[in-house]
Amino acid sequence: ASEASDYDIVFIGGGVAGYVGAIKAGQSGLKTACIEKRGTLGGTCLNVGCIPSKSLLNNSHLYHQILHDTKKRGIDVNDVKLNLAQMMKAKDESVAGLTKGVEFLFKKNKVDYIKGTGSFVDEHTIKVNLTEGGETEIKGKNIVIATGSETTPFPGLEIDEKKVITSTGAIALQEVPKKMIVIGGGIIGLEMASVWSRLGSEVTVVEFLGQIGGPGMDLDIAKQSQKLLAKQGIKFKVNTKVLKGNASGDGVKLDVEAAKGGKNETLEADVVLVAIGRRPYTDGLGIENIGIELDERKRLVIDQEYRTKIPHIRVIGDVTFGPMLAHKAEEEGVAAVEFITKGYGHVNYGAIPSVMYTHPEVAWVGQNEAELKSAGVNYKVGTFPFTANSRAKTNLETDGLVKILADAETDRILGVHIIGPNAGEMIAEGTLALEYGASSEDVARTCHAHPTLAEAFKEAAMATYSHAIHF
Ligand code: FAD
Ligand code: NAI
């Protein structure tokens, strides 16, 4: 490689972890390159994840609300029609705007964007198979692997993104399927079930566990969420295991059985969405050429400063430990660069919020009741329902509650769990409280504007150490 292709730092993968890290590195004065093979920056999140799914969730919710929830508000509407092609176009435009925005930020921060697939030749050298043809080699003093994750396949069901789909197919269907089955009642399953059920599909979610929502969601909240989603028309089969599938005919057939042994049945649908989790992605990266370690779940093994056993090679985002969330990946991008430039960095893994963008939204941060119980922590619970919140009442959106868990002795907040309107925005306050080590009394004594949904958060905090006023 020539002198010109030597970099202080090279990111492999231009997803949220890699692109944020690259911008931070550029801002810190490092000579920076980012290799991305997709053709656009932003990774799973911007191209086929967070952003397109939220566009469809928002617009399908509006459509559903206009169909079912306007009369009592004094709005009569007629002749409401779905224009799915336009809904998809609006989604594609949001995605294109944001991915181009990242490209602009690369230029602004002097990051070299190399389009192609990177693979390790040795500990400092990466060969790039260029998208436009040909190949090049670049060297990095530091290298950061940020290659993300992919859908975990369901054995025996081949993905064609038409009849048997992953989330990538689910954000791009060209017509509303008559019947859809979702394997896995985690966050992807429930968000996509919401979209297609609102648009008119008959959706059944099959979940292996007794509880929907995936890892981390508090049981009380998960139960409420399931009840509210069922009211919207989504059918649930919990405690149910999918044994095998067959997509050879017109539709797809799934053999399922009760998880604890028992009844077998065959379910049929036009489309089946596989949403049983995601797994780290390292295909074609050539890690065998440098001998870094993977754990039993194929996550790249790192220390607290994101270093592999080759210390100048670090790993961030979905391809390593921790929750597979965009904001976690982003925090790691910044921290990894700070470890290099300053010698210290910071991500508080105890205060990473999770949001499920269904309606109502579900959001949480910190520990849930089951986790506190199994850790033997003595805790108090304060709850406040949105039925008693003035803004929720005026908005005619009273489903849900705020639940705060605090240490019984010190009153320090240990977990915040919300189901309700705008829960995803409100959780920022809970996250800040956790980050600052606030007590529930600290929050309860903070003046909150009236009338806002956030007052429910303040009153749940009051209920944790004393009594709520309005309930
Ligand atoms: P990725 O975003 O997967 O980026 C990795 C990039 O590396 C990819 O673009 C890939 O093309 C590239 N790459 C891989 N190998 C190579 C190579 N050898 N050479 C060059 N490039 C390579 N998270 C949230 O926080 N909020 C949400 O609302 C949310 N919604 C989601 C919805 C869906 C449908 C899905 C699937 C995920 C969602 N997520 C959400 C999760 C989020 O998308 C991920 O946590 C996030 O994208 C992880 O970022 P990353 O940079 O680690 O990996
Ligand atoms: P998940 O881990 O959240 O949920 C998978 C669900 O499938 C679990 O409830 C599991 O019990 C169930 N399951 C597994 N095998 C099964 C089987 N054979 N039959 C029936 N059920 C089975 O994974 P999901 O939903 O695929 O999401 C992947 C990742 O993407 C998550 O880690 C999530 O953090 C991220 N994501 C985040 C979003 C957000 O923040 N809003 C949105 C979408 C995805």
From TrEMBL:
Q: Which GO terms describe its molecular function?
A: dihydrolipoyl dehydrogenase (NADH) activity; flavin adenine dinucleotide binding; glycine dehydrogenase (decarboxylating) activity; oxoglutarate dehydrogenase (succinyl-transferring) activity
Instruction: Name the cofactor(s).
Output: FAD
Annotated ranges, domain FAD/NAD(P)-binding? 7-333
One GO cellular-component annotation of the UniProt record comes to: glycine cleavage complex
Q: What is the lineage of its organism?
A: Eukaryota, Fungi, Dikarya, Ascomycota, Pezizomycotina
Which key words are in the record? Disulfide bond, FAD, Flavoprotein, NAD, Nucleotide-binding, Oxidoreductase, Redox-active center
Q: Give the InterPro entries listed for this entry.
A: Class-I_Pyr_Nuc-Dis_Oxidored (IPR050151), FAD/NAD-bd_sf (IPR036188), FAD/NAD-binding_dom (IPR023753), FAD/NAD-linked_Rdtase_dimer_sf (IPR016156), Lipoamide_DH (IPR006258), Pyr_nuc-diS_OxRdtase (IPR001100), Pyr_nucl-diS_OxRdtase_dimer (IPR004099), Pyr_OxRdtase_I_AS (IPR012999)
Where, in this chain's numbering, is NAD(+) bound? G184, G185, G186, I187, I188, G189, L190, E191, E207, G277
Note accompanying the cofactor annotation: Binds 1 FAD per subunit.
Disulfide bonding pattern of the chain: C45-C50
**What NCBIfam families does its record include?**
lipoamide_DH
Please name the top-level EC class of this enzyme: oxidoreductase
Question: What protein am I looking at?
Answer: Dihydrolipoyl dehydrogenase
* Annotated binding of FAD, by residue: K54, G118, T147, G148, S149, D318, M324, L325, A326, H327
Q: Which family does it belong to?
A: Belongs to the class-I pyridine nucleotide-disulfide oxidoreductase family.
What GO biological process terms are annotated to this protein in UniProt? 2-oxoglutarate metabolic process; cellular respiration; glycine catabolic process; hydrogen peroxide metabolic process; L-isoleucine catabolic process; L-leucine catabolic process; L-serine biosynthetic process; L-valine catabolic process
Q: Which reaction does it catalyse?
A: N(6)-[(R)-dihydrolipoyl]-L-lysyl-[protein] + NAD(+) = N(6)-[(R)-lipoyl]-L-lysyl-[protein] + NADH + H(+)
| Chain ranges of the Pyridine nucleotide-disulphide oxidoreductase dimerisation domain | 352-461
Please name the Pfam families in this protein's record.
Answer: Pyr_redox_2, Pyr_redox_dim
Q: What else is known?
A: The active site is a redox-active disulfide bond.
User: What does the record give as EC number?
Assistant: 1.8.1.4
Active site positions, chain numbering: H450
